[in-house]
Amino acid sequence: MNPYSALPDRAFWRPAVAEKPMLEIGGLWDPKFAIAKDSAIATYGSCFAQHIGNALGKRGYNWNISERAPEGMSWASAREFNYGIFSSRTGNIYTTTLLRQWLSWASGEKEPPAETWRKDGRFIDPFRPRIEPAGFRSEDELLASRRHAIACFRDSIVSSDILVFTLGLTESWRNRATGVEYPMCPGTVAGEYDPDVHAFHELGFQEIVDSLDASIAAMRQLNPAIRILLTVSPVPLTATNSGRHVLVATMHSKSILRAVAGHMERRDAGVDYFPSYEIISSPPFRGAFFQDNLRSVDPSGVEFVMSNFFSAIEGAGNAAPQAPSREQPSPVAPRAAGDGADDVHCEEEFLDAFSRKSAHG
Asked: Which residues are CB-contacts of 192 (< 8 A; sequence separation ≥ 6)?
């Protein structure tokens, strides 16, 4: 008799993985806390986080949208102007330090910077560079919109039972003088890059842990009962400024983020981790859920991830998730809560335009 003798099949690779058809691998997650249909759930993070919000809305869960589209705006226009993408119009929050920055503004710990960018006579928000497709008409309009987004972000934290945050990147860009972080390198999506003003920064394990710790503490100051569900985006990097090959940089980044998520989940009863990264990226799934570019996640992969998610929270235990359809899921009619389609808004994909192959056809 030894400690392994009484373990269930799920603890052993052969019966849990090797002997199962790929789509019957299930029971990957035991939720740490209940997630009911009426639980208010806020979603933020990298591009992949958008799939979670969409799936919650489609299945009748209480996706907490605190910044809604103006009355009378069409569904297509609402999506174009980034309503119903995340719980408020923050744009993608790729790093834990960027999350910490938003929370410092929302809590009043720091004043939001007055920095704005110009393009073709319009004004661009450096911290939400694609939030308005053509930019803002004036600096005052931009700053008012930013203040409103910060207030709505705060409200989503205060009014939510659960925050789902998807860890996306370890690479970031900052202003050398002010220390503020941008979601994208200036000069890519918008703005002008100046090496004397802008600095590349690569986050390490401890810095990510510290900024996530500080973020969770700030959220609990606003809402002591809030619980955190972490995920790691399975989407590889579009580009890297680290000096490494992009494949190596991707594995480096995702490994650190996965380690951070596991570290936080193990030591905090109010933090859980859902393995969307493993479901898409692990060897048993043979890359089947990636599209031809080996980066974008196919709709069938998103469906399989979310089937695992809902199977677990709805009490199906170790049952295999529903096999995904290979067809593109049909968009549902949008609801007042901001129910969205299956496309995602991802600033990082714009970096592909700067590769030599893209630039020269």
From this structure: 117, 186
Total tally of structural domains belonging to the chain = 1
- What's the whole-model pTM score? 0.89
What CATH number is attached to the domain comprising 349? Answer: 3.40.50.1110
Nearest in space to 226 (alpha carbons), one of 280, 170, 269? 269
Helix (H) or strand (E) holding 79: helix 75-80
| Beta-sheet strands, E only, within 224-292 | 227-232, 271-273
DSSP 157-191: HHT-SEEEEEE--SEEEEETTT--EESS-TTSSSS
6 in any annotated domain = no
- Per-10-residue mean pLDDT, the chain, length 361: 94 96 94 96 91 92 96 91 95 97 98 94 96 95 98 98 97 97 94 97 98 98 98 95 97 98 98 97 94 92 94 71 46 35 56 59 44
Does residue 327 lie within any of the structural domains?
yes
> Which residues, 6 or more positions from 230, have their beta carbon under 8 angstroms from its beta carbon?
164, 165, 166, 167, 261, 264, 265, 271, 272, 273, 274
Tell me how far apart the alpha carbons of residues 213 and 233 are, in angstroms, rounded to a whole number: 19
